[in-house]
Write a structure and sequence with these properties.
The chain is of the alpha/beta class and about 375 residues long. Helix content is about 25%, strand content about 25%. The chain is built from ten helices and 16 strands.
Amino acid sequence: MATAADVDAMRRAIMLAARGLGSTSPNPVVGCVILDSSGEPAGVGHHQRAGGPHAEVNALRDAGDRARGGTAYVTLEPCNHTGRTGPCAQALIEAGISRVVYAVGDPNPQATGGGDTLRAAGVRVESGLLADEAEAGNIAWLTSVRLGRPFVLWKYAAALDGRIAAKDRSSRWITSPESRADVHRLRAEADAVVVGSGTARADDPHLAVRGIEGAVQPLRVVLDTEATAVGPGARVLDDAAPTLIAIAEDAEPQLADAVEVVRLPRAGRGLSVGALLEALHQRGIRSVLLEGGPTLAGAFVAAGAVDKVVGYLAPVLLGAGPAALADAGISTITEALRLELTETVRIGPDLRITAVPQTAPKER
């Protein structure tokens, strides 16, 4: 049975793992805490970037000789394969760790089995401690492994009556500066930010992270089906962050060859959401922040490709204008996508609501 010290150590490991959000893909975020043989803190570490040392290795380096005979608390089962770095299970064995507690088993068939390797070497292994908390912190990577596509978070900002713009389409600014700053945090934690042609035309968005020191800039993705919405001088074409323009297979791009373009099959009046997510997954994208307008959001919901919703609701009433979500393939109340509220937080004068679908997302 887990002790209070076990819980405290694992919770700290989960907090450490969160430091890697936005910088480790296509790898998971992982945290590790090591207590020495007497139960005193000896070392901590987290996975900082893809290709760099894993959390366990960083924690072992921090602990030094004090790791021998100690306990390692890891948010994800130690890996069991050699990629750009060596297997963490073996590193823990060689360091003399006597007990390993991990929260979530590794679903990656190429890396799983670390627990068995540790047991075979005589290490005491326990799993499942704070599994729900650890899984929530690593949900983007876990979703990508389980479903073969990136995790999608749809963010929108709206008035209290659900309008994202006034009748004349003006929308700056419905929500507060505090909410807009919080959106940059979401961008910093995502591998890619996605908008559609309507947003590109109406807002000429920049989509880069601002105001967060050391943030890794996400890939800016514009779904421009007819290759007409993003022209020379568009803000997404500057050098602040990489940009990918998705167009239809039969469209004729007007941009210079230096701009990266991906051709996707059509679906209805737009592009195939599934094909887009597959193309991003192949690029190592494991988390997507969907910032597009109601049409694009509707396409993702209709495709069963929204894993989390974050809505910023301002204490404002507009009474007319576009709603946050357009046609999502829902024709009757029995088809409604029911959500489970997971968090409500005041952000300045606004309310941030976080929810997840009650039904499991669709597998490919």
